[in-house]
What does this fold into?
Amino acid sequence: MSEFALSVVIPVYNAEEYLGETLESVASQTVGMENIQVVLVDDGSTDGSAAVCRAFQERFPANVVFHQQPNSGVSSARNAGLDRACGRIVTCLDSDDQWSCESFAHALEFFDNQENNVDVLVGELTLFEGEDHTHPLAYRFPKDKDSIVRLGDRPCDIQSTIGNCFFLREAIGDIRFDEDLTTSEDTLFVNRVMLRKCAYGVTPFCSYLYRKRQDGSSLSQVITYAKHMQNLEVCRRMLAASREARGRVLPFAQAVALYIIGWQLLGKASDAFTAEEGEAWCAAVSEIVEQADADVIAKARWLTREKKIVLYRLKYGLDIFEDLVWVDRDRGLLDGMQLVSMNAKAPCYLYEVAPAGDVLHIEGTTDIDILGMPFELFVRDEKGDECFPAQMFPYPTDDRHTLDKRAVCAGMRFAFDLPLEPERSYSFRVRFCGRAQEVILTPHYGNFAIFSQSMKRDFHRFGKVMVKHIGKQLRTYRATLPMAAVSELRRWAEILRSKKGTAPLRLQYVWLRLCYRVHRALFKKPIWIFGDKEWKAGDNAENVYRYAMKQSGYRGAKMYFALEKSSADYASVAAYGKVIDPSTFRYKLLFLLSSVVVSSRAEEAMVNPYGSELVFVKDLMDYDFVYLTHGTLFGDLAFMLGKPAKKIKLFSVSTQMERRALLGEAYGYGEDEVALMGMARYDAYGSAQTQKKIAFLPTWRSNIAGKIIPGTSTREYVHHFKSTDFWKFYNALINDERLLAAMERCGYTAEFYVHPAFEKQAGDFTGNALVAVGEGSADYERVLSESALMVTDYSGVGFDFGYQRKPVVYSQYDSVFSGGHTYGEDSYFDYDTDGFGPVTRTLDDTVDAIIRYMESDCALEPEYRKRADAMFGFSDYQSSKRIFDAAAALSARRRADGRAR
It folds into this structure.
């Protein structure tokens, strides 16, 4: 067998869709195919993978070894490949991943350099498709050079995957993958090889592209109890391999085990644990953690603070933190080693800092309960030596549990009302177990808390009092014009010196601040901004804006509607109001000056037009956000719409169901922050003329949606969309011959629209003479007004039909919860018992239900009408007026609090 410079082992199992891309990444290597051996091992594929392999072998007959075997698992397939590899260097490439074209050439150059003297080279791992975040071990790679990681000195800088590794074949020797393992088998293999020299190379010049599939079908993305337990078995074998090779458990072997445990410690299994399984998992984790040194846990950069705390408690006992000695007033030591710092974000995260009359109202969250000790949270005025105890509230959204459902931390929210008067110096503190010693917390500020952690010159003026954050304190001063001017000039200097953005961008933000100051001084009339999507109007916010401009007679504010100039709706809104493009400098200035923002969207683009440069102007933003919701909330979205995720001053809802949920502990809103006012877009239905039309409006699935294009709210086109069950079901439904025949017989037509998240996939669906497929997202007002029947799956627009007392067919061929929908399984709306029409599970049942409704002129049955009557707070088509009046009352309250502008 001739020897190649490099062998690529590729295990293949049902990878026909991606395999061609993988092989092309090998063929395009700059080192040339004459230096590369490719070993393809087909592990019993049932699709067309074998044909792809044969075609590649025919293309490079001298370089490709193709082996087929019955399905035996990836470890067996890799072992078969290693047995056939003859290159000096070996890499194992997964059949859906890729190497960048310069990678092999650089690997050869690296190993030709005798000074390196290591057996393994690791290239940078880049995630693509389903996810594109930075890998937690990416910090090991220098930007522009190779480096050697010596695990004796840096035991936590471990390697966890095999795909981005190159090995000297002689170093592999007879080491093989454990074929009884189906998860983390590559971690064990890599680190068994590492035990030989306890060192490896890292390079930024070799890039491994790791595909995180959008449909969640990668084997590594499906986690069950059995896989969790097998991961722990890998940990045991790693520790045993270290003992066998080195006579003891090396720190880096401990780190490998902790890395594996870290991924599952606070995770969630695909199948829920039984009580017995939970006990077995906890015992196994504890056994492994007891063998880890405390300083290995402490030094692991890839372990979050909360995971380290849980590991310490597993190793030493639940009450370990009661023995801490606190030094520097914020660091907890055990036997001289730091176990915890209160300088982190989680102990004192402030999401709201705002005046309320003569007090400064502060709200935040804390995870101090994770230490397992009774505690007292308070603020001390260091000048007057006065203490202000926190008001504490449960915050179940932030509750933390281990994988086996053991409570780790009870999420808590806190609130303070501190005197808003000069010459105060407030610091946030905690006392444990009734002790006298006070531990000082470092306040960290959320996006809506006025101040920024990264900027030292932030200040805000509230009437005659100026508030600054300095170090770990909030300090108040008597506001004077000279002090304000000097503070602003210092702020400009800090922005110009910042490393964030380019020099012209930083100068632009200094100019923005100057324009803001001038406008605040010269123009006193409040500014309100309304907006739906940046590129589209027609939702709740535009309905309220139309009312404000045409009917309200209100002259207490200047009102603008945010909409891109390229939008098809721009001219129609501009015909009756003032429209401002959100991409312009003028919009950024108006938003900074705004006192009220009214929107049906709470995404970042709507509440923060400054992106990552928000820190330059955050201390100037002071608007009240009126959130109208795009649709009815019927599931728990506290993680994205509750405090502290959003700063919503007034949350408008249309049902008692929503109001009850928002007033619960999970969301954290108070009675004066949630208002039952109805859905503004429902007002248009009052004059609707229903036609013989059916609206097909399914919701989306995040696991098959394209990635959001940076800087926009639109998503990329997904090329394999037509292979998904979603496309197959709905394309078959709108082209069903039995349905079309009934529609023609009853005189009905239909329109099919994808959810806005699937907008670029609309062209994938095939319409016909009776069912028109919309090119983009729907004109919801028109479609929902005209249609007599709606067919959806789980979409919130079903509530629009319920409000109009028109029937809905809920066609639920799958579960959105397994499909990655925004809502979780704890939805508080039950389609079977609360819905406004029947729930169907198959294509035939869906067609039957639609036909029955067409044959009865789409009359809503009494049972479903009764449900609708009980659901909605109003049915008078006056929601826009109620919402506008509430916004005006907010503006009046701002004036009373001295915040008018």
